[in-house]
Amino acid sequence: MNKRTLIFLLASIFCFLIVFSLALIVGKYSITIPDFFKAIITNEEAYDTQRSIILNLRLPRTIVAGLTGIGLSISGLLYQEVFQNKLTSPDLLGVSSGASVGAAIAIVLGLSSIFVSVFAFLLGAITVLLTIFVAKVFKNKSSFTLILAGIIVGGFMSASLSVVKYFADPTTTLASITYWLMGSFENSTMEYVYILLPIVGLCCALLLILSWRINVVALGQEEAQTKGINYTFYKFLIIGIATLLTASCVAFSGVVSWIGLVIPHIVRLIVGRDTRRSIPLCITFGGIFMIIVDILARSFTKSEMPLSAVTGILGTVIFVIILIIRRKENAH
Amino acid sequence: MLIDVKNLSFKYSKGLPTVIDNLNFEIKEGTITVLLGLNGCGKTTLIKLLAGLLDSNEGIIEYDGVDLKKTSIKDRSKKFSYVPQKNFAGDDFFVKDYLTYGFVNSLKFYESPSKEQLIKVDEVSNELGITHLLDKKMGKISGGERQIVTIASCILQDTPIILLDEPTSALDLKNQSLVLSLLKKVANSGKTIILSTHNPNHASFLNTNVILMSDGRIIKQGSANDIINKEMLSGIYGNNICYAEELEYKEVSFK
Fold it and tell me: d(Cα B176, Cα B191) in Å, to the nearest integer?
């Protein structure tokens, strides 16, 4: 790891801790900094309300927000490297479309929120398998075929979602489906953390171990294979990890757009394409971005704003700035 | 014999025409072999078959008497390294990082290059005169420099055979000469080189073994002196070429 990467990594870890702490303090129920420390350090009954808000509401949703940011940023980066296309997003193979159908079915059936997540995860994963199956039908191993299959299956899932919404009760379940589709951490509990933390943690650990090798895979099949990499194995391993991360995050937070596109671009702008440097920064930057989005979503309006509305506004503005910087860089 | 190709045939899928049609040839250790022929005659497909990027429909490719179909991707990469015709995927990587990717087959999945291997990168870069490129991105160097960097990566991969698919096709004359001279130098160090080209002057300059191909078949194989002659070339390239034998190297050009 070079000096520049190390500086940015340490600075971003520091920022992550600050933003994480801020997320526990900031919200509709105002908690002062002294009250925050008294609530979490002491057992005084006077601070029971603050303690309950911090530990039962804000802590789980902030951890889930951080993990979702990490998961979606990393999966965006992985898809972009494997498909050698900087504009691909975590939804490339139809994960989010499938997860949306799963969640919508669970909501229409009146199931509890944990089952909404389970259905979303399962349908998200099944959709990717379906995409791979459709790509196999074409008998063409190129990444382009896989992307094409993703568009086909994603389109089918979007149509299926419309059918489910058509049959939903317009006064109750339809609103819930629409709200879920825009993303929220409102229902996050420590149970979500216990499921999401090991998944994101293990995936990140594995990716950090494989990070140098991912660079070789990113060279494409011809170069990677002749250099001794089992390209097909690594390609599907990386796609598998990216899909697991996306499906898990989307299952608990709903569909969150832009983050998988914006964060890898910011990181590459700072440390370049080498995944030994970009993966660690995607972890910290992704976590910071999503926690900030969550703070904004729950702080500035009476009712919570959907995550995709905030990520969409922030994401497009940041993306334009990135493009301007890139243009200036290329001009030199 | 280092490489022995027997009855090799290939088509991309059923119903499509045969691209490689019953090829038989041998390649000796430490030689340069030029696959010469028009665009679309099967040179690239043959290079890819040798590199293991395509599986033949019929026939076998033996390395030191062993059928290469029975070897793993990793083992094959210890025998053959490969310079593709075009590759823009590595544009954003720094040259010094790209060069280290040649070591991937000697490392375990969790390892990255050792200090000794990084020193080796510096040594080879110094030897090939590309030290000044190490901190540049692959996409920011010239086509000729890029080919030399890719060949340097093959040298670091340390394989007995280097396969090059049209290594000079997008280069100006100066860079063509640089790359071909480098290949001569690499062959003199004991490596076996197989390259494809549609330019007979390159075969003439390298003055080595030539396999003349047309429509997936071998028309003739032998030394450059035997192959680069008017009758042989006009059969492939047509009558609109002129041929100068009196120069140091036989030269083919337009009429």
Answer: 20
Under an 8 A CB cutoff, do B77 and A209 touch? no
- Give yes or no: residues B100 and B218 share one domain: no
Instruction: Indicate whether B5 and B29 sit together in one domain.
Output: yes
Segments making up each domain of chain A, as ranges = 90-190+223-255
- CA-wise closest residue to A224 among B133, B114, B52: B52
Domain boundary among B119, B138, B157: B157
Is A232 in the B-facing interface, judged by CB distances under 8 Å? no
The pTM is what? 0.89
Residue B169 lies in a domain: yes
Q: How far is A321 from chain B (nearest CA, A)?
A: 20
For the segment(s) A90-190+223-255, the CATH number from 3.90.76.10, 2.40.50.140, 1.10.10.10, 1.10.3470.10 is 1.10.3470.10
Q: Which residue has the tokens 């340390």?
A: B158
The answer to whether the Cα torsion of B73, B77, B80, B84 is positive or negative is positive
Q: How many residues does chain B have?
A: 255
Residue after which a domain boundary falls, among B157, B182, B212: B157
User: Residue A188 has which token pair?
Assistant: 């996050």
Q: Contact at 8 Å (CB) between A204 and A245? A: no
- A220, A230, A274: residue with CB nearest B89: A220
Looking at A138-274, list the stretches that DSSP marks H as alpha helix, in order from N- to C-terminal side. Answer: 143-167, 173-181, 190-217, 221-226, 231-253, 259-271
Tens digit of each residue's pLDDT (9 = 90 or more) over A279-331: 999 999 999 999 999 999 988 777 888 998 999 999 999 989 988 988 887 76
Residue partners of A328: CB distance under 8 A and separation at least 6: none
The domain in which residue B129 lies consists of 91-157
Are the C-beta atoms of A273 and A218 separated by less than 8 Å? yes
Tokens representing B41 are 């005659």
Other C-beta atoms closer than 10 Å to the C-beta of A10 total 11
Torsion-angle region of B174 (φ positive above 0: left; ψ -120 to 50: alpha; else: beta)? alpha
Distance to chain A for B161, nearest Cα, Å: 12
Task: Scan for tokens 């979490």, then name that residue.
Answer: A40
How many structural domains is chain B composed of?
A: 2
Is B56 inside any structural domain?
A: yes
CB count within 10 Å of CB A234 equals: 19
Smallest CA–CA separation between A144 and chain B, in Å?
A: 14
A contacts of B94 (beta carbons < 8 Å)? 272, 274
| Residue B254 belongs to some domain of the structure | no
Nearest Cα to B50, choosing from A219, A220, A218, A222? A222
A220 vs A207: CA distance, rounded Å: 18
Each residue of A132-159: pLDDT tens digit? 889 888 777 677 888 889 889 999 999 9
What ipTM score was computed for the predicted complex, to two decimals?
A: 0.88
In a shared domain, residues B74 and B164: yes
Same domain, B1 and B71: yes
Tell me how far apart the alpha carbons of residues A99 and A247 are, in angstroms, rounded to a whole number. Answer: 7
Quick one: B51 and B6 in the same domain?
yes
Q: Is residue B248 part of a domain?
A: no
